[in-house]
Fold:
Amino acid sequence: MQQSSAGAGKKKLLIVDDEKYITQLLTELLENEYAVETANDGIQAFNKLKSDSFDLMLTDISMPNLDGIELLRLARTQLPEMNVVMMSGLATTENVIDALNLGACHFIKKPFKIDDVNNIIKQKMNAAAAGDGASEVDAIMTDINYLILSNNYGRMTDIKKVLPNCTQSYYEIFKDARVVKNLLKIKQFDDAIYRHSLDVGIIASIICAFKHVKVGLLNAITLSGFLHDIGKINVDYNILNKSEKLSAEEFEQIKLHTFYGHNILLEEGFKEEVAEVAFKHHEKLDGTGYPRGYTEYGIDTASQFISVCDIYSALTEKRPYRKKLTPQEALELMHKDFVGKINFDVVKLLKLFIEG
Ligand SMILES: [Fe+2]
Ligand SMILES: [Fe+2]
Structure:
């Protein structure tokens, strides 16, 4: 372990990697700017966290004794607010999701470019210091970028073509501080619901961008996707995360998120069209949905659209009660179990960007 000299007044950075040449290289790169300490495994690092505080920890995942994910889990007990950037040559979806669940703020894939690491550390250190709206938007955009990189949204080469339009739309949407505030409320309540909310917005935006819909509509649909489940913040957390079968009464509690969502969004001053999606995204065209059991004539197009994105997102996520499905498996299940219930014009669009 090493400690930089002349560290007084500098922000503190802990670098953790079992490959000593990496800790040495990064120390040389960063010690002018930060008070750098290093550790060569998770246990050494955790001992440092117990006796000292750091502004940011940069940690490898694969390490002997205690790996980066376990270290992050333990670190949260000592320094819940510390920024953590993960590095790994094995950036599997599970790794990324575990790290995000534990509040890691960035994921660097090895081998990395020195300049990239430098920029990311600088950006995260500055964002933490700023603590303003801009850093909140940056944090959400980082989460969105991770989801896009770690999720299998289909043919990435084609998706990359529409991503600039989608990204522009996200920044446009996040100019509204109410959107940022409510997304962060969801994140605070349950990170999994937050990721699902972003996921639904991302899927909706990609489909709209593929179809070249007008910017105003793209933004409105994406916004409705981001906030469709806002009402869940008023539902009992333990019921939402129950892995056993829900009782009828518990299911009734969950259904209420549609009412809550509608109310929250109207109270916040969002347009009725946005609140309507929160209210109707679980309605089914054949009248078997909730909360009202409307048929297709009572369900607006945006709600039908988000309903498809919502189901696809839910099926491709791991839930407490089942494993996640691949995009193909999700599409197959939708064709099998949802005929007559959801809008298959939207499913066709979804299929386009998944399968080509
Ligand atoms: Fe929902
Ligand atoms: Fe949902």
Notes: Confidence is low (pLDDT under 50) at residues 1-6.
